[in-house]
Amino acid sequence: MIEILQQIINGMAIGGVYVLIALGLTTVFGILGIAHFAHGSVSMFGGYLTFFFVVTWGLPLIAAIVIALLVGLILGILIELLAYRPVRNANHINAFIVALGLTMMVEGLNLEFFGHEQVVIPTDFSWVFKIGGVTIPELRLYTILAAALLIAAMTIFVEKTKTGQAIRAVAENRDAAILMGVNVNTIPLVVFSISTALGVCAGVMVGALFAIAPGIGEGLVVKGFAVLILGGLGSIPGAVVGGLVLGITEALAAGFISSAYKDVIAFVAMILVLLVRPQGLMGKA
Description:
Layout: H1 2-32, H2 39-55, H3 61-84, H4 92-114, E1 128-131, E2 134-137, H5 138-160, H6 162-172, H7 174-179, H8 187-209, H9 216-231, H10 236-256, H11 262-276
Antiparallel strand pairs: 1-2
Helix pairs in contact: 1-5, 1-8, 1-9, 1-10, 2-3, 2-4, 2-8, 2-9, 3-8, 5-6, 5-8, 9-10, 10-11
């Protein structure tokens, strides 16, 4: 039983990362209908940038994360303005091609500026908490808490603020939102800023918990889309549930079967869920 609880804690940490990636993807997909494949590479850019500020500039971790978030906000605005806005009203295949090209571009920039080496973001979180036989490293605990706070903040923003209500209005019916006075040219900028900021946070968590290396971003975005499908497209609660289910399933598979098969087992579990609920766990029929 203790081993199961241990793996659930481990799964909650990586599941929190998946949730943040999925939230960034679902906001973009819900507003613009774009599969933002570059989101994983952008997340890794945020992690690399944080590593650079901490190691090269000697900044404290929190300050490095704040600066990386600000850069991420600007990057999100530029991506929307320069990459996706020109093809907003074009055929969906155009946006798809732009997304793939943007993925290769961001990945190339990561390689050019930060190199091919695997890096780990250094932290001072070295304590280990033991509760009833379950071991919880300080860094993993803070990752879970940070993910929970970001999810709560995102939920409050979307549900309670005027900007969040405008985002939901555009997602539900763009034409009706225009008639209600919503500036549909500003909303995509806000959405991409939030999406990129969430991605940067996920990249920092991956860099601190595991490592950042070329190619990780592509795998991360695949997991993000898997979470969206599992939880239900366009559903924030679904993204949360789907991310935790996928993360915990991976951890249990790695702990009790083999880490070599954890991805396969996690995706098999996702397929089994979709056989019962094709719309996802929290999606509408």
